[in-house]
Write a structure and sequence with these properties.
Chain lengths: 261, 460
């Protein structure tokens, strides 16, 4: 029957728990071997993004449609569909959450979701358990891609559909800005200009790995929107991602210079 | 003289042969609990390759607290499943204290988990801490089983609030108890989101199986020991009130008859939880110690009128049905390691001591009972104690306040004066918390090692 000291016990338990959790968290590395594959995925993604407009133009009857980038709790999800003869022949995620457990979840869920889309030919697919947010974001992006596909089908005219811009092919011009290196990695902006206006902006390269993944996912979509809205390089930096924003602006300016000249 | 001495020796040898102390499994159980916690942390460690940033740290802190809460929740329920190994070997009082302690800790983990996860999600969605409420609402609406989890967390909040010291003392016991029973619902509601949204269960299927196993086992034990075992016990023994006897002003004995009561396996020093099926009493059950060794057709409890329930016992009439659960408690002869025993009773704490005084094996002079009360009128059961002492050659001492209200001297010195070989005794003690604490210190001062002071206390 030892004397009990309730307050001391509460303090001890709280201190031990908090310091134990902090210790565990600090023992985990910020990046790990998987980050290499994450970067690999990022590289693939940019490659895919570059290829997509051409891929869309190439084969007759086959087109690719990229859905809207959807922000989820774990990062951005963006779906690209390959459509042939009015049917979805292929579905893939151009962007999906990465870093930490997200890598595993993405690896777990995205292939399943891709298969389901081809099987059901609709956005009415079941979520993968354990990857609910990713599944939700995937569905939204998929829905937007399917909407675009249907719209294109109604118009029948356009054989090729590219992501955001329903590009009136003739005057549309894609210009890629210079690579600007920042403290966190290179940034390169590509814009689509039609009728003297920026109809689309995206980052061909952006910092990746570690916290950069999330910052990029956070900042680049905003910057892309801003660039289209402003029509020039005079856009606001995204707070918390000022280096990326700075690099983006420089590359954007160089692209605008090229487009103008 | 020589013969009595020899007889004493022979009898003592006889006694010692019957002393088989059983170690409490508490240490082993605690080791198993810690090992389980390490396993849970390993699960998280295994499934988390890296943590990118501040936001990731918040989320992962949320995951760790969530996993630990899920694990401990099962154990908190298990502690109240009335498993015999816990109730009779570790001791109901100790398990109840574990339950209170780990319950509070687990609820803190639950609330920390909810806060950290929602904060982490809000940050990940590009929002800030101030959006945490909106984030919580969104998550509850969008994620599977989160609606249930929200209901469960609400129940936990209610249960936690009702158990805060100040609030609990103001609530009637029955109300508090029935609110507390909602824990089962809360655990049920919060279980499912662990499986469907839990990162680690999605990534490690074996963990899911282990989790189902843990909760399944606890459910089975609760159903078996809290529901089926009492039903079987009461179907078999069919207990009824035989008589109610007023021992001293404010202290009554209730005699309970039934069939084959010796087959219940109750030992002196143990208690049952009693539910008297009388108007206004059938919805509450209370723990009262047996105040005499169980006989084939009769059990006896002796109760002091302290609360509503105990005060109403005098209104019981012969023939009323009784529902009992038990026997519970570890303050039995199994704790004994020495031939000589000192029993210390404070007030109505005499009840289990009276039963032990009657039944503990021992030669003349081996057993001593020290009975503390305010006045000689408050010495309930004194006559029968004197009779037992006389028959067994046991020593019986009492300590009451002096006529001017001064407390008797129970100190290391006075104990040593009365029992020069007190450091060679096992001590069994039952009494109010303050009394028990001061006697404990006096005993330690008199040289009795802590492992030989056996005490049961139901304060939280």
């Amino acid at each position: 029957m030892k004397k009990s000291h309730p307050i001391r016990r509460v303090l001890l338990a709280s201190a031990a728990t908090v310091s134990g959790i902090v210790l565990l968290l600090s023992l985990k590395p910020a990046t790990d071997s998987n980050s290499a594959s994450a970067q690999g995925a990022a590289a693939q993604e940019t490659a895919a993004a570059q290829e997509s407009p051409q891929g869309g133009a190439a084969a007759a009857g086959t087109s690719t449609i990229t859905g809207a980038a959807t922000q989820t709790e774990y990062g951005v999800v963006q779906v690209r569909l390959t459509v042939a003869g009015g049917k979805i022949t292929k579905a893939e995620a151009v962007q999906a959450p990465k870093g930490g457990t997200s890598d595993q979840k993405t690896a777990l869920s995205v292939p399943k979701l891709n298969q389901e889309v081809v099987a059901t030919q609709s956005a009415d697919i079941t979520s993968v358990s354990g990857a609910t947010y990713t599944s939700g974001g995937y569905k939204k992006s998929l829905q937007s891609a399917i909407d675009k596909m249907k719209a294109a089908g109604a118009n029948t005219a356009a054989p090729s559909q590219s992501s955001a811009a329903a590009a009136p092919a003739a005057q549309a011009k894609t210009v890629t800005g210079e690579v600007v290196s920042t403290e966190y990695g290179p940034v390169q902006v590509r814009i689509t200009v039609a009728g003297g206006k920026i109809t689309k902006a995206d980052a061909v390269q952006a910092p990746s790995g570690g916290t950069s993944d999330q910052k990029t996912a956070l900042a680049i979509p905003k910057l892309n929107q801003e660039a289209v809205a402003a029509g020039n390089a005079n856009i606001d930096s995204v707070s918390g991602a000022s280096y990326t924003s700075g690099g983006y602006k420089k590359s954007l300016q160089s692209a605008l210079d090229k487009a103008g000249g | 003289m020589t013969t009595t001495l020899a007889g004493g020796r022979a009898a003592r040898r006889q006694t010692m042969r019957r002393i088989r102390p059983r170690r409490s499994p508490a240490t082993l159980l605690l080791l198993a609990v810690w090992a389980g916690a390490v396993g849970v942390l390993w699960l998280w460690w295994h499934n988390t390759p890296s943590i990118a940033d501040q936001n990731g740290k918040i989320l992962n802190a949320g995951r760790i607290t969530g996993l630990l809460a899920g694990y401990l929740m099962a154990l908190v329920v298990l502690q109240m499943a009335r498993v015999p190994a816990l109730e009779r070997r570790v001791g109901s009082d100790r398990v109840a204290r574990w339950h209170a302690m780990s319950g509070r800790y687990t609820l803190c983990l639950v609330f920390a988990h909810v806060f950290l996860i929602m904060w982490g999600y809000a940050l990940q969605a590009g929002k800030t801490l101030s959006d945490i409420v909106q984030q919580t609402i969104d998550s509850v609406n969008q994620l599977p089983d989160m609606g249930k989890a929200a209901i469960g967390t609400g129940l936990f909040l209610l249960i936690g609030l009702s158990s805060i010291g100040g609030i609990r003392r103001r609530l009637p016991y029955d109300l508090w108890y029935h609110v507390h029973l909602l824990t089962y619902a809360a655990v049920f509601f919060t279980f499912w989101h662990q499986i469907t949204t839990g990162n680690d269960f999605a990534l490690t299927p074996i963990a899911k199986t282990v989790w189902y196993g843990l909760y399944g086992t606890v459910t089975a034990l609760v159903v078996w020991y809290r529901i089926l075992t009492p039903i079987r016990l009461n179907m078999r023994h069919r207990m009824r009130v035989e008589a109610v006897i007023e021992e001293t002003p404010g202290i009554v004995s209730v005699l309970i008859g039934g069939r084959k009561l010796h087959r219940m396996g109750a030992e002196a020093g143990q208690f049952f939880r009693w539910r008297f099926l009388a108007p206004g009493m059938r919805f509450s059950s209370h723990p009262y110690s047996l105040s005499a060794a169980p006989r084939p057709n009769m059990l006896r409890i002796t109760v002091k009128a302290i609360g509503d329930h105990s005060a109403r016992l005098r209104e019981l009439r012969p023939g009323m049905k009784v529902w009992a659960e038990g026997p519970y408690g570890a303050l039995t002869s199994q704790r004994r390691t020495r031939g000589k025993v000192l029993l210390v009773a404070g007030g109505v704490g005499i009840t289990p001591m009276r039963a032990l005084f009657e039944t503990l094996p021992g030669a003349a002079g081996d057993i001593t009972l020290l009975y503390r009360a305010n006045t000689t009128q408050d010495l309930a059961l004194w006559d029968e104690l004197a009779k037992i002492a006389d028959e067994r050659g046991a020593r019986l001492m009492y300590a009451v306040n002096s006529p001017d209200g001064e407390r008797p001297d129970i100190s290391a010195d006075s104990l040593r004066r009365k029992l020069p070989d007190i450091d060679n005794h096992d001590v069994f003690m039952c009494g109010p918390p303050g009394f028990a604490q001061s006697v404990y210190e006096a005993l330690r001062g008199a040289g009795v090692p802590a492992r030989r002071i056996h005490h049961e206390s139901f304060e939280m």
